[in-house]
Amino acid sequence: MLSFVLGKIVHRLHVALLIVVLINPSAAFADTQQTPDYTIPADAVVVGGAEKGVSAKYLLDDSVGEPIIGPGTSAEYTLESGYRQPLASSGSISLNCSTSVTLPAILATGQSTGSGTCVVTSDAVGGYALSWGVLTGSGGTNTGSLIASGGNTIAPYTPVAGGVPETWSVATSAAEWGARLKSVSTDADVKWGLENGTDKWINIPASSSSEIVSRTSATDPGGSTEIIQFRTEIGTGVLQVNGVYEATVTFTVVAL
């Protein structure tokens, strides 16, 4: 939230984080063996086989010496027989995000930065993709903006090239907010830069969703911690109207 008190502009940005988890309906598989550091989703005694045989059009995982394999169902049970069967149908996923982020105060003009986390845990062999978007209507008719109760807004960040993260730069005549993925996240993406002054920022898309980061394998048992950083800046030429400004961001994760 951005709060304005006694004629001075005090900014406390509160970004509410909704969680949307899309789960493959065939996600569950039984008898996972795990410790705090390792997970064995399935095991078998076989006489041969290989992982990830690939060509331009096909992907093959094979094992030699298993008994009858494949799915079997009845009115009360589902059986996935064989070592490869449960692996092929895996895809369980969970998402746990910070419920709010409050940025340090800004007096009159200046910049403020804060962060929250999203922890993704998935056994999907293809990995996951994490996306974000500003909830429709957040920002009133100016969806994507931070909005105060009186209808005043702080606009979303405006990169030179739409959809491309860039070095943070807000004109003195502007007031904007944006976000990025920190490079110290478990599954960092080079498009967000590093924490050494090369950090890259972008607006969170309004009324839609765009990918923040993805990975191509299952996470560790403790999950992947993605650190989401938020920033707002009031230019020196701006007299921002007093009020509490906020937006709602929705994070979505899907198994790949």
Index terms:
single chain, 256 residues, 2 domains, 6-stranded mixed β-sheet, 4-stranded mixed β-sheet, elongated
The run of helices and strands is EEEEEEEEEHEEEEEEEEE
Q: Give the overall form.
A: elongated
Beta percentage is 35-45%
Helix content: under 10%
Q: How would you describe this protein?
A:
The structure is a single chain. By secondary structure, the chain is mostly beta strands. The protein has 2 domains: 179 residues, no CATH class; 36 residues, no CATH class. The protein is built from 1 helix and 18 strands. The strands form 6 sheets. The chain has a 6-stranded mixed β-sheet with strand order 10-11-17-15-14-13, with no helix packed on it. The two termini are 35 Å apart. The N terminus is likely disordered.
What would a concise description of this structure say?
The chain has about 260 residues and is mainly beta. The protein is built from one helix and 18 strands.
SSE diagram, text form:
Blueprint (H helix, E strand, L loop, with lengths): L2 E3 L2 E3 L3 E9 L10 E2 L4 E2 L7 E7 L4 E6 L5 E4 L4 E4 L2 H6 L3 E5 L12 E13 L5 E7 L11 E2 L5 E4 L18 E7 L28 E6 L8 E11 L11 E10 L1
Parallel strand pairs: 3-18, 14-15
Antiparallel strand pairs: 1-2, 4-5, 6-7, 8-9, 10-11, 11-17, 12-16, 12-18, 13-14, 15-17
